[in-house]
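Aim 2, interim progress: modelling of the 2'-deoxycytidine-5'-monophosphate-bound target.
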Amino acid sequence: MSNSIAIDGPAGAGKSTIAKMVSKRLGFIYVDTGAMYRAMALYLLRENTDKNDAAAISDKCQNADITIKHENGEQVVYLNGENVNGLIRTEEVGNMASASSVNGDVRKKLVELQQKLAAETDVVMDGRDIGTVVLPDSKCKVYLTASSMVRAKRRYKELIAKGQECDLEKIEQDIIERDNRDMTREISPLKKADDAVEVDSSNMTIEEVAETIIELYNKSI
Ligand code: DC
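Predicted structure of the complex, ligand included:
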């Protein structure tokens, strides 16, 4: 049986940075499940799907073939054979991903793919429902959090570095609203699995968080 580390948590807690670092050190494959929801969202946008039309989303998602390959240590997402890595990190795709990821048919399709990947190889997988739904039997589950203010400051710094004007209070407000939406949605809400260990990264360095997770993993095997 292959090994896994399941990392869940709210946006901005540092999941992908940490998951990449941990996977490299352990020689596992990093699986970014958010990228799959984003690739699906890109498909739905291209099909001019209304984000509030659940029936259309359920119908159209069946025609999106999403696959993952690992090339030079990077996860590459293919949508119907096209490498879409460079197209899925926009605000528009993020908003569509947030709306369409509440759809049960979208989730069913992507969860199946995620489970298949984890069955084939050792993975560090991050998302919102990995410990609860995708890999409920994983022996190493982490719920990575940070205070809304710390997450807002991280986001603020990223935007300023990109030369974008922004307001810290507004960013924190958006984060709190997004958390609320993710935690209260009907299907697969963001929540800590009963057997997950909560790691609060607010006052930790990236290095400290990675070490903590590797220790948890070593203890779990
Ligand atoms: O982590 P991210 O921002 O790239 O995720 C994009 C969207 O997909 C986000 O709105 C939450 C959703 N998502 C999800 O519902 N389940 C996952 N396992 C991963 C992401």
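Residues 11, 33-34, 37-38, 94, 97-98, 101, 127-129 surround 2'-deoxycytidine-5'-monophosphate (CB under 6 Å). Residues 33-121 form a domain with the Rossmann fold fold (CATH 3.40.50.300).
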